[in-house]
Amino acid sequence: MEYKVSKHAKLTTLVLIVVGVASLIFGIATDHGHTDQRIWANLLVNGYFFFTISLAAVFFLALQYVSEMAWGVTTQRVFQAIMAFMPVGAVVLLVIFAASSMHMNHLYHWMAEGVMTKGHESYDAIIAGKSFYLNQPFFWGRNIAYFALWIYFANWFRKNSLKEDKLELNGETSPIYKKAIIKGVLFIAFFAYTSSSASWDWLMAIDVHWFSTMFGWYCFSGMWVSMMIVAVVLVQYLKKNNYLKEVNSSHVHDLGKWMFAISCLWSYIWFSQFMLIWYSNIPEEVTYYIQRFNDYRGLYVGTFFVNFLMPFFILMSRDAKRNGVFLIPVALIIFVGHWIDVLVMVLPGTMFDHGHLGAVEIGMFLTFLGVFIFMVLRSLSKAPLMTKNHPMYDESLHLHH
Amino acid sequence: MSDKTIYAIYDDDYVLLESAKHLVSKGIHIRDVFSPFPIHGIDPVIGLERTRIAITAFIYGMIGLSLALSGMYFFMIYDWPLNIGGKPNFSLLTNIPSFVPVTFEFGVLCAAHGMAITFMLRNWTLPGFKGRNPYPRTTDDRFVMEIHASDSELSADEIKAFIDETCVLEIDEK
User: Are A355 and B92 within 8 A, CB to CB?
Assistant: First the structure.
């Protein structure tokens, strides 16, 4: 069945973008100083948040092939659609990095002039000690490689899934499926390193004096759970509009389980990172938390409890994971929660104690959300909602537990 | 109607599942099924209700959580405060991060053990309890249905006739 973007959906995305831009303009007009930095920081927050949702969808698709997952076949096109924001997100992020490199903003202090030059007035010995990794040529080389390879894999999965639909198979296993498993393995091996190292470059390098060995996992679980939330909501939306009839309550249950499980993974990593640093109490490590607990306590600690306790207690029972009445409110609330989580990863290091959740932040979020929804729905409308010729399609259709 | 217990013995789980469907469609109530491993999809056929073990697991987990927290409050804050790494030792709330791992582990311990003990108690299979398994071979390679003649309108002979229609290995009566 082909999906068509309804007028209602188009209107909603338009309203989101218009309201977002209006709020953004209002926020900029009423801002008191640091406006440039604030806009760049918010671009990074939303560029990162929405790009990594798409990126996690590529990961989950690769995981489906590698683990030869059968239940997910009926929802494969949903995950493929979530990948559609990748090019836009990549451009936003690259523009931010280019602007940082050209000193048009001050998101990354290590890129500032003289920080690594001995004798310069802003010389910083600690940052200079990291110059073997944090230097412009290497930074650009690896980041371009990340984007290029991630987008290459995303395109490969999408293109070949569409090609698979048109194959004429006489009871044979689709040759594309076998290739996809190998591509999936390669992607996961690549992604295992790059999801960590990219999060160091993009977010951890903001607080350049600080480091945490769990940071990569923390970002990875955050992007994964945000993507599962989008998938859960999208499937519920499509089912409500009489699409995806092949997706039964067991599929919904499985998606709900993933959202539940990865919420717990994220909470576990959030807490582990915090607890180890709190316990050892080493000055160079605790700075990160002191900043957040002093200036962003409500947002930082509040979102942790919401993102952990809401899914944990509401989605624990089997029936709740099968029911949109429970799934959607929890999903929408923790979606905002995980966005705020990214916000408090970026703002303290870029805005210091001036950052807060205001009209600029909300406006930028709504604008990006509108564009994101538009890109995802448009991609969804370009192909049939069900794959054909996937060897486990039939098994997925009869999923029951 | 005499209360006779009929045992239908099978050597395959799938055959038993299909036979159970057949018998149930004839109005026969199956009391229980004994098998070496869980038979997928048998529960709705013989009319078993959904297990409530998950609810008990939640309750045991919560009990473990509160036991661990109150225990640590008593040991570490109230009774004998210890200064460990300069962490606040006079209040549970400000010291709670260091208690979370133990609380979590104890919650899991209580949930898992409570659930296992409840399960075995409900099945009467705790160590030392006398087994009620009518056919010890059901722990190896046999699958047995237990049918009580008094559960349905049919007579024992009629039930046996229906069982004979299925691919049964042996019918026994006690």
Answer: no
B101 touches chain A (CB under 8 A): yes
Task: Compute the distance between CA of residue A385 and CA of residue A238 in angstroms, rounded to an integer.
Answer: 10
Query: Burial of A135 by CB count in 10 Å (0-12 exposed, 13-18 middle, 19+ buried)?
Result: middle
Going B101 to B104 to B107 to B111, the CA torsion angle's sign is: negative
Q: Where are the domains of chain A?
A: 7-111+135-162+174-376
- Residue B82 is predicted with a pLDDT of 85
Residue B146 to chain A, least CA–CA distance (Å): 25
Handedness of CA A275, A281, A282, A283 (dihedral sign): positive
Which residue in A356, A351, A367 sits closest to A25, CA to CA? A367
Under 8 Å CB pairs connecting chains A and B tally to 18
The average confidence (pLDDT) of chain A is: 94
Provide the ipTM. 0.84
Give the whole-angstrom CA distance, residue A274 versus residue A263: 16
| Mean pLDDT confidence for A136-152 | 97
pLDDT average, residue stretch A14-34: 94
* pLDDT tens digits, A366-392: 999 999 999 999 999 999 999 989 999
- pLDDT tens digits for A71-105? 999 999 999 999 999 999 999 999 999 999 999 99
- B100 touching A (Cβ < 8 Å): yes
Contact check, Cβ <8 Å, B87/A279: yes
Please, which contacts does A154-160 make with residues 24 or more away whose CB atoms are closer than 8 Å?
A154/A54, A154/A58, A154/A83, A154/A86, A156/A183, A157/A58, A157/A61, A157/A62, A157/A80, A157/A83, A157/A183, A158/A80, A158/A83
B83 CB near a chain A CB, below 8 Å?
A: no
Q: A278 in contact with B at a CB cutoff of 8 Å?
A: yes
- Provide the chain B residues 114-173 that lie in CB contact (below 8 A) with chain A: none
pLDDT tens figures, A283-295: 999 999 999 999 9
Q: Of A275, A317, A318, which has the smallest distance from its Cβ to B100's Cβ?
A: A275
Residue B133 reports pLDDT greater than 90? no
- The closest CB to that of B97, out of A278, A316, A318, belongs to A278
Percent of chain A scored above 70 by pLDDT? 100
Q: What is the pLDDT of residues A42-74, one digit of tens each?
A: 999 999 999 999 999 999 999 999 999 999 999
| B58 inside 8 A of chain A by CB | yes
CB-CB contact of A295 with A230 (8 Å): no
Question: Hey, of A268, A271, A289, which one would you mutate to test binding to chain B, going by the most B CBs within 10 A of its CB?
Answer: A271
